[in-house]
Write a structure and sequence with these properties.
46% helix, two-stranded antiparallel ribbon
Length: 282
């Protein structure tokens, strides 16, 4: 996939979203509108934060990660493409955030509340809602909430039902227009004017353009390397499977000649237990 020209980026692109929304004055009003609560202060904020416990674990790269004055954690992601199993992806992000939140020897009661928010261009659930909010309660007793402090939101820029805060709906319309390359009138919203100005200022910054190209090339190389490793692994697995099929065929043929398993083991150089296992294969 070719690298998208810097001048064509909109808020729906990871790089632009991270650059714009990592600023407290840009992300805080959005969160306050969505969650209908007041955030007094953003005390920490990161863009494209990597969460990885061990070398060969599946990594997480958070678009915008922040923390408020109550130690509440927020992760805000943007999705231009519809991914399968988004619920499990959210679960994995949550677990990564939790593992990097609780200090060694800390009590579980100290685990912070957390919010994982995905802004999607397409309608993941297909019900037309603008805001899909995860709700957790006890089966058979919905009046009893299951309060683990975790909250998940999936927002839909292609909504047909206006079930969100007007400011959130306008923000989603702005996201959708940017994705489609359409003009959007921001004159009725000082917040969207602020966001649009931030987007345009970044596009005028040649240093940011160089940063974007460097990151895009790095990610392209990573995808290429992963693809090549997958191909090599597939070829190796194919060769191993072919070799194993040949071994089974040879063992069956030798058995048909009344050779014992011990004799076959000595002749083909496999452990007796492995010969027995392959002999049982159909």
């Amino acid at each position: 996939m070719p690298i998208k020209p810097f001048k064509d980026l909109s808020l729906v692109d990871d790089f632009m979203f991270s650059e714009v929304m990592r600023k407290p004055e840009n992300v805080k009003p959005f969160l306050e509108s969505l969650l209908e609560t007041k955030i007094q202060r953003v005390v920490a904020i990161d863009k494209q934060k990597d969460l990885k416990d061990i070398y060969d674990a599946h990594g997480i790269r958070l678009d915008v990660s922040l923390e408020d004055e109550h130690n509440t954690k927020y992760d805000v992601e943007v999705q231009a493409r519809l991914h399968r199993k988004l619920e499990k992806r959210i679960r994995y992000y949550k677990s990564g955030i939790d593992r990097h939140t609780l200090e060694i020897n800390a009590d579980y009661e100290e685990l912070s509340d957390s919010f994982v928010i995905f802004l999607c261009v397409e309608d993941y659930f297909g019900a037309g809602l603008a805001v899909y909010e995860r709700e957790s309660h006890i089966k058979g007793a919905p009046e009893i909430p299951y309060e683990d402090g975790f909250h998940a939101y999936i927002l839909n820029a292609s909504f047909t039902k206006e079930n969100g805060n007007p400011a959130v709906l306008d923000f989603l319309r702005y996201i959708r227009a940017g994705y489609k390359g359409e003009e959007f009138d921001t004159s009725s919203s000082s917040y969207l004017q602020q966001i649009d100005k931030a987007v345009n200022e970044i596009k005028q910054d040649s240093g940011r353009e160089m940063e974007y190209m460097t990151l895009a090339m790095k990610m392209m190389d990573e995808r290429k390397e992963a693809f090549e490793q997958g191909e090599a692994r597939g070829r190796a697995e194919g060769r191993a499977e072919g070799e194993r099929a040949s071994q089974i065929k040879t063992i069956k043929r030798m058995l048909s000649r009344d050779m014992s398993l011990e004799e076959i083991s000595d002749m083909i150089g496999l452990d007796l237990e492995e010969v027995k296992r392959l002999a049982e294969k159909k």
